[in-house]
Design brief:
The chain is mainly α. The protein is 57% helix and 5% strand. It starts with 16 loop residues before the first helix and ends with a helix.
């Protein structure tokens, strides 16, 4: 009778080689028993190294599809008429499905076929990517000018100043109305599909990371497991950068590249009405996730544990043997004892039923939250994560508006500067903790310094920008009243549609008009060049000298500040990421050993609930308050066309400073508590000491904090 297959850690005794081979024979890809270990060794699906490779690629693709929406958030707003608050809620909605199910991962961890469940989750993620691109195919082609729905080239003529007598009065036609009930129902359907796709994306991502890491830890050699997990995170961290890079490439293409109108389009990517092919990136990312999911249906439920330590790891482990004890004062325990304890910890959740697990979880949550160090570290990470979530979601839009850069260029800047800087910060933080053998006090000091310098680098950002240029009928020079009545005299003979948007710029006065009609222009000219063509509007009655005016928005006068701004943001991201590893070590060393697994789970759950879900909505709501001109769609407020740049910058950067200040305050309190604990421990240790130990304590009190820790 073959051995029973059960959860990890329930093997009755140390089985022999043949027993181990029989144990995994039931889960071979072909369904045939292969009791010979030599056959198993030749199968790549029984290699933990191949699993690490597959899981690295899967998490890379999964984070790429999760981060792609953030790279195209402003484009989605323009395409479907969404406010920043709605788009922020959309970006955060994938955390809803994730948070609702992530708690049960610790319960089902060893009861299920983990590789197969990872594959099912990846399939859901791929379906969510396809669902996100569906609104493009069920919507009508994008019309960047609402004045003509018949022929695109007529848009230029319709935007000109035409005498009111030559333009027939519009007659309401319910069948052709752009505000029909069908149009509104289609808009609600499109938005509902995107929210459903984001929810499905969060649900599919639930089993991928937790089950993958636990599977690697269970079947890798004890000495190789940290290396494999490090490789996994190193590859995974490139996902957001690739998402922004993919967004930069896709947004250069026109949104309707699959159904271009006859004669093409006359827009360029610098035109404020330009909408890139946002949907194409979701298709590419979904295909990558689907391909990465295939191998998981061939991995066994359990595989033979890796027997050999990697050769280049031995020297490192021998040199840093003291750091393997995870910062505990007790001598390093043997690998067999540590594995036995780990297996006993994993049995806490499987020994409970679902009802018992739900009943026990609130008590464990309250007990963990009563720990002051854990609570303060989580609060500091909540502040940092809120800052990162808001920055990742709306930084591309901020760069577009503040510095007049294209959406693709803004994404390339973030993907090439900010994301790599954050990766370097995480790696440097981990290296400092390992090489310097930092104890809790020094970890808190490192976190405090990183948060402090990150905050200081944010202060110059308040002054790196310029005010909104004058917009006719919206903004006004000092001493004049706002409103379109300033331009009624010159536009009186013209029939200008109220919902038209075809901006033009008077380069001499640096004044922007919503349409050539509002500038009083009656003619249009096209200047051909070798690399591009430039459209001019002439005979403009509202412009001094009659024009000409250039098609498109006025360029920002501080476009040259975009690179210094991004360098400061990237350096600040690196310093903020420096606190990631030391703050995580404070949690691992600050809670009871039996609570470590659940403490980490509670930490990530609180980060989702308190940071990643509300932060994009908070930032989006703050951005909406800086809007000075909204586009109207069927009587409702749609996308914002113009912002008060000074107010936008102050509130966006102000929120960043607010969260960084909160994180700095939490780290300062953590350092104060740890130092107080060291003093209390020092007074307790002096009682049982004798002779030489007492002299050492009294002669070197400044060394006590280090000796009481690692």
């Amino acid at each position: 009778m073959g051995p029973r297959i059960g959860p990890v850690g329930e093997e009755p005794q140390m089985p022999g080689k043949d027993a181990k081979a029989m144990m995994v024979a039931e889960d071979t890809p072909g369904g045939k028993a292969s009791p010979n270990p030599q056959d198993l060794r030749r199968s790549m699906f029984y290699s933990i190294k191949f699993f690490v490779l597959c899981h690295s690629l899967l998490q890379l693709a999964q984070l790429m599809i999760s981060g792609y929406l953030k790279s195209s958030i402003s484009t989605v707003e323009k395409r479907f008429g969404l406010s920043s608050q709605t788009s922020g809620l959309l970006a955060a909605f994938n955390e809803v499905g994730n948070t609702a199910l992530i708690v049960f991962v610790s319960y089902f961890g060893s009861r299920v076929h983990r590789p197969r469940l990872i594959g099912y989750g990846a399939v859901l993620v791929a379906l969510a990517g396809l669902l996100m691109s569906l609104p493009h195919f069920i919507s009508e082609p994008y019309r960047y000018d609402h004045t003509s729905s018949v022929d695109m080239p007529q848009d230029f003529e319709a935007s000109l100043c035409q005498p009111t007598t030559s333009v027939p009065a519009p007659t309401p036609d319910p069948s052709n109305s752009s505000c029909s009930s069908y149009t509104e129902a289609q808009h609600l359907t499109v938005v509902g599909i995107m929210f459903a796709a984001q929810t499905l994306l969060g649900v599919g991502a639930v089993p991928i990371q937790p089950f993958g890491i636990s599977y690697i830890d269970d079947f890798a050699h004890n000495s190789n497991s940290p290396l494999y997990v490090g490789i996994l995170f190193a590859v995974t961290m490139m996902g957001p950068g690739m998402a922004y890079g993919l967004g930069g490439l896709m947004l250069r293409l026109y949104v309707d590249i699959d159904r271009m109108p006859e004669g093409g389009i006359s827009l360029t990517s610098k035109d404020p009405r330009w909408v890139g092919a946002w949907w194409l990136g979701f298709l590419i990312s979904a295909g990558a996730v689907a391909l990465a999911a295939v191998p998981y249906f061939f991995f066994p439920r359990e595989m033979p544990r890796e027997k050999h330590e990697l050769r280049f790891r031995r020297r490192v482990l021998e040199a840093t043997a003291s750091s393997v004890s995870k910062g505990e004062d007790s001598p390093p325990e043997s690998l067999a004892e540590s594995q036995e304890k780990q297996d006993s910890l994993t049995q806490i959740a499987p020994d409970l039923t679902v009802i018992q697990f739900i009943k026990v979880f609130p008590r464990v949550l309250l007990r963990t939250l009563r720990h002051p160090i854990f609570l303060l570290v989580v609060l500091s990470q909540v502040c940092m994560s809120s800052m990162v979530a808001g920055m990742a979601t709306f930084l591309p839009k901020f760069l577009e508006r503040q510095f007049s850069v294209t959406a693709s260029y803004a994404n390339l800047l973030i993907g090439c500067l900010t994301i790599p800087s954050a990766i370097v910060g995480i790696v440097v933080g981990g290296v400092l903790v390992k090489r310097l053998h930092l104890g809790p006090v020094r970890c808190a000091i490192l976190c405090l310094l990183g948060a402090l310098f990150c905050l200081l680098l944010s202060l110059p950002l308040f002054f790196m920008g310029c005010s909104t240029h004058q917009i006719a009928g919206i903004s006004h020079p000092p001493g004049h009243l706002p409103g379109p009545e300033l331009f009624t005299a010159c536009t009186e003979p013209c029939f200008c549609p109220l919902d038209d948007f075809n901006p033009v710029c008077d380069p001499r006065a640096h004044v922007e008009y919503l349409t050539p009609c509002q500038a009083g222009c009656t003619g249009r000219a096209l200047q051909e060049a070798l690399d591009k063509s430039q459209v001019f509007y002439t005979n403009c009655s509202c412009v001094v000298g009659g024009g000409p005016v250039l098609a498109g928005s006025c360029e920002s006068s501080c476009s040259h500040l975009v690179l210094p701004f991004m360098l400061l943001v990237s350096l600040g991201a690196s310093l903020a990421s420096l606190t990631h590893t030391p703050s995580f070590m404070l949690i691992l060393r600050g809670v009871k050993k039996e609570d470590k697994t659940l403490a980490v789970g509670i930490q990530f759950m609180l980060l989702r609930v308190l940071a990643w879900m509300p932060s994009p909505v908070i930032h989006g709501s703050a951005i909406d308050t800086t809007c000075v001109h909204w586009a109207q769609s069927c009587g409702r407020r749609a996308v914002c066309r113009y912002y008060d740049h000074d107010l936008f910058r102050n509130r966006f950067v102000g929120l960043q400073v607010f969260f960084k200040t909160g994180s700095l305050a939490c780290f300062a309190l953590i350092l104060a508590i740890l130092r107080q604990q060291d003093k209390d421990e020092g007074t307790q240790v002096t009682v049982p000491t004798s002779g030489l130990q007492q002299q050492l304590l009294t002669s070197g009190p400044e060394k006590k904090p280090e000796e009481s820790r690692v």
